[in-house]
Amino acid sequence: MAKNERSKYQNEVISRYYDNLDTILLGKLGELVTELYLADTPARQERLWQRAHKAMTKLKVSPAIIDHIMQKRDVEILAKNLQDWLAKKQKK
Description:
The protein is an all-alpha fold.
């Protein structure tokens, strides 16, 4: 198979991945909230916050909301926003 050729099945798998990317990212963000609550060192918290920032950016969250969450670095604010985003996703 040539480098850029994919089977029909592979194309369908890739398509389904991108169709569900927002759900995948919301799940990842939920896991990050849990890890942030349990993080024991400032260095670990910093790495987790950076991952949360990337996930929110990929979810196309408003930059103003991302900036607010990142400035406060409050897990409860992130968790509340995540609940809102999940509720919006459920309504779709």
